[in-house]
Each structure stands twice: as C-alpha cells, then as structure tokens.
Write the structure tokens for this entry.
Amino acid sequence: LKEENASLRSKINKLQIFSETQADKLRQLEKKLEENKIKEEKEAQDLEAMVQHVEQNLQLMTKRAVKAENSATKLKQENALLQVQLNNYKTENEALRSGQMASLAVVKQNADLALQNLLTVLTTSRSSIKQLLSGAESLQLVADLLKSIDRISEVSEDGQ
C-alpha cells in the first residue's frame, strides 16, 4: 500500500508539474494571442488611416482635374475668340490694302497684338492641358492603389 501510495503520489506530482507546464504554455499562448490582436488592430487602424488619406488625395486630385478641365474649356473659348479677332484683323488688313482704311500701321499693330494674344493663349492652353493630363495620370495611380488595397484586404480576410 505504501509503495502504491508513493507511486500514486509520484504520478500526482508528475501530473501537477505537467499541468503547471500546460498552464504556463496556455498563459504564453494567451499573451501571444493578445499581442497579435493588438498588432492586428493597429495594422487595421493604420490601413484605415492610409485609405482615408488616399481618399482625401483622390478628392483633391478630382478637384484639381475639374479645375483644370474648366480652365482648359475657358482657354479654348478664349482661343476661339482670339481666332475670330485674328480673322477680323486679317479682314481689316485686306480692307486697308484695298484703300478703304486709313493706315496700314494700325492694322499691322492690331494683327501683331492679336498674334501675341493668340500665342499667349496657346501657351497657357498647352500648360493647362498638360496639367489636366498629369491630374488624370495621378487619378489613375490612386485608383490602382485603391485596387491594390482592396486586394490586400481580401488576402487578409482569406488568411484569417
């Protein structure tokens, strides 16, 4: 009975040690699980902040693109107006040559002024169109980035 009792005590001690070891492992795993939860929450918050930042940039770029489009439209209208003016000046120039107007110098000055205005509008139009194209490329980049973020989110959800 004493041997059996000693054997049983030995087994109980071993089981208690095993139980404590398992409890330690369980505490470590719980701690690691909690750390992973905190890490995932932080990553989710960081990702959300990044998405919000990208959305803000997208809105800003959209506003810029709309502004550039409006500017391009305005410059095209101004360009058309200057074209009409130029044609008027050409007609006036022809009229001067036929003797109906007083001074060829005035016509030349008007034509030069119209040409300068036309060249200025042309230069400004090109710049605005380049800005519009740049804005469109930026919008495409942001759209591609948002698609990538969606894929990352899908992979993260599948991985859980």
Summary: The chain is about 95% helix and 0% strand. The longest helix spans residues 2-97. The chain has a mean pLDDT of 86.
